[in-house]
Amino acid sequence: MQVNVLGAERRRRWSYDEKIRLVEETLQAGETVCGVARRHGVAHSLLFTWRRQARQGRLGGDSVPALVPVEITPVASPISSDAPQPASSPPAQRARTGIIEIEFGGGCRVRVDRDVDTETLQRVLEVLRRR
Asked: Any stretches that span the bilayer, and where are they (predicted)?
């Protein structure tokens, strides 16, 4: 089993509500885009972009994908036939495919391979979800 927990990303993700609040703040009397940007640690060019997108109705919400429920079901065994089975040979090595990467909103990512223990993965995801 392989589980990699990667560090937080450097890029800040702004929620839709935060973007709207900052854009509205730039529209207040006596406020400047540069002043609002400086106070909140945002590049002024980003605020200008958000203002333009808001005017055009294109200021989207969060770009972080939502988690969806996943159900893991066992693989059905093949139907047996009455035909004679060949002599058993050593099991073939499974190819290392099926890597899944799960990204959380805070920039934390988890990569798991197909051999991950579901109980362990569930515990790891629960801990990360609480962060």
From this structure: none
